[in-house]
Each structure stands twice: as C-alpha cells, then as structure tokens.
C-alpha cells in the first residue's frame, strides 16, 4: 500500500510539496527528539502533510534521557520546533502530554518558567478529547499505567539501553545490506513487539489504562509509550495507540468526517468510523441493545473504504 512514492518521502525525492490536508485533530507520540534513532526527517514530512485544528504530542516527544548519554539534536529537530511554532501562530492548539522520557515537564516550576509564555500551547499529564461524533477519549502517554515503569524503573532503563543497542545493530545491518525498501528498524520492531507484548501481559497495561479512562467517564483512550500502533475495542471501550517515530512511523488523525485514521508508514492504514452519540442512543432505544461496538466500523485501507486513503 505504501509504495516508494508515499507522501512521507516527498521531501527526500525532491518532489513538490502538496498543500497540507486540513484535519480536526492530529495525535503523535514517542518521537524521541534528541535520540539518534529518532526518525526526525520522516516525522517532519508527515507533520507537513496536515494542518490540524488541534495537535496532541502524546509523550516522549523529546528524549530527556539522552541529554547525559548521547544527545543528537540535528537541524531537522530545529525545523520541527519551528514548524510547531508556525502551526500555533496559524491557529493550531498544541497539547503536550508529558511522558517518562520528558518527565521534566511534569515539574510545575519548569512548566511555569519555560512554557508559560508560549501561546496556544498547553502541557499536562492527560487531556480529554471529545471527537466530532461526541465520543470522549482520554489522552495520556501511558507510562503511569506500565507496572514495570512505575515499580521497577531500573529495569525499564536497563531494557532501554539494551533496546538502543539493538537499534544500532539493526541500523548497521540495514546500511550493510541496503534492502531496496522496508523498515530500517524492522528487526527491532519485531523484537520490541515481543518484549512489549510481554510487558503488556505482565503489567496488564491495556486494562489498567482503560480502567482509568472509564473512571474519567471516557469512552476510550489514546496513548503511546509501548511503540505498538493499534486500534482495538476492549470491554466496550476503544484502545488506540499512536505508535512511534523510532520504528513504526505512525500517527493518528481525526478527519473532518469524524473518522479516526491510523496512518502507518510500513503497514496498511486503519480507519475507525464511530457512529454519532445520537445514532448509538437511537439504536439502543430501537433495538434495546446496550451501547456496544456493533455500530462501528474498523476497516483497513484495502477494505471497502479504500477510496478514502491517505491522500484524500
Ligand atoms: Mn514512554
């Protein structure tokens, strides 16, 4: 589906940039700017594809853990920051959710000192997004619900060092053999997927985060942290993970027609069409059904909605 002419590559290919697509909301997480493994180029190309009314940076946007152990801040990182300031000036509201790699933003004194002067820019541990169709999603990074992260941060830091080594080895292998296309971090992605599945199993990540969203009277959650993009329904709620910009290059878009669109660089896109709240209530009343996911539609880009692809 994503051939070599994918819009993310337009900048590299020297093609003319298309006008950005206007969208209601854009959500991205785990960009890890400052880490040498961050895919800053591709992320900037992706950002330029859209003009969102609201932008959510769902944690680990800046990798503060790398400040002492290998800080890589390229000119592209500056371009990304300049682009965000430009978006804010043109009216986009930017929400910055703090993650475990940029936990310094959880310090109120830091926030008050450095960020108070930025207009249309808000920092928090969590936000509630009401979609066009009326559904409420809790937006949080996710580390606060990762049992490994909260109980054994030393283990988390240890696995991060191991993971960085894997990323470096993977990049070396990719450069050595230079396959014509594919994900340069594909091997790592598979490895990390296994590790994260284990963490999900051990720490009960999804159910803990959904439980919290339910307590906040939300219908679902949008998070990042585990670098595994996904849209799944669980216990009559929606769990959406925006993925990352290290291995998967993914982001979540809420389009003006109300659909949630998970854009995936190396896999098929996913679309989630949620009915409006009124529609759901009417169905419940008509058929005495409980509010469930039966009125929703989750399709891949190759499904019947294929005409509504990425560049629509
Ligand atoms: Mn994280």
UniProtKB/TrEMBL annotation:
Keyword entries, A-Z: Cell inner membrane, Cell membrane, Manganese, Membrane, Metal-binding
Domain Calcineurin-like phosphoesterase: 24-229
Keyword Membrane in record: yes
One term under GO cellular component: membrane
GO molecular function terms attached to this record: metal ion binding; UDP-2,3-diacylglucosamine hydrolase activity
Pfam families listed in its UniProt record: Metallophos
Statement: the UniProt record of this protein carries the keyword Membrane: yes
Gene Ontology BP terms: lipid A biosynthetic process
InterPro entries per the UniProt record, alphabetical: Calcineurin-like_PHP, LpxH-like, Metallo-depent_PP-like
Name the record gives this protein: Calcineurin-like phosphoesterase domain-containing protein
Species name: Rhodopirellula baltica (strain DSM 10527 / NCIMB 13988 / SH1)
């Amino acid at each position: 589906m994503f051939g070599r002419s994918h819009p993310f590559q337009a900048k590299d290919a020297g093609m003319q940039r298309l006008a950005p697509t206007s969208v209601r909301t854009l959500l991205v997480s785990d960009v890890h700017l400052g880490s040498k493994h961050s895919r800053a180029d591709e992320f900037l190309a992706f950002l330029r594809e859209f003009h969102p009314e609201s932008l959510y940076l769902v944690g680990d946007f800046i990798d503060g853990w790398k400040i002492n152990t290998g800080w890589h801040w390229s000119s592209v990182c500056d371009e990304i920051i300049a682009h965000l300031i430009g978006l804010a000036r043109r009216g986009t509201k930017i929400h910055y959710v703090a993650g475990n790699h940029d936990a310094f933003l959880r310090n109120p004194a830091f926030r008050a000192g450095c960020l108070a002067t930025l207009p249309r820019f808000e920092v928090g541990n969590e936000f509630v997004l009401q979609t066009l169709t009326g559904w409420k999603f809790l937006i949080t990074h996710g580390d606060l619900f990762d049992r490994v992260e909260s109980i054994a941060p030393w283990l988390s830091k240890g696995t991060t060092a191991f993971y960085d080594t894997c990323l470096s080895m993977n990049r070396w292998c990719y450069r050595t053999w230079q396959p014509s296309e594919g994900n340069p971090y594909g091997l790592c992605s598979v490895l990390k997927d296994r590790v994260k599945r284990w963490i999900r199993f051990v720490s009960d990540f999804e159910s803990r985060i959904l439980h919290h969203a339910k307590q906040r009277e939300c219908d679902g959650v949008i998070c990042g942290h585990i670098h595994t993009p996904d849209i799944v329904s669980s216990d009559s709620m929606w769990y959406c993970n925006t993925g990352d910009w290290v291995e998967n290059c993914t982001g979540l878009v809420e389009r003006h027609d109300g659909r949630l669109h998970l854009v995936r660089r190396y896999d098929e896109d996913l679309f989630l069409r949620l009915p409006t709240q009124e529609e759901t209530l009417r169905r419940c009343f008509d058929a005495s059904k409980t509010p469930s996911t039966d009125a929703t539609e989750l399709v891949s880009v190759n499904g019947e909605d294929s005409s509504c692809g990425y560049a629509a």
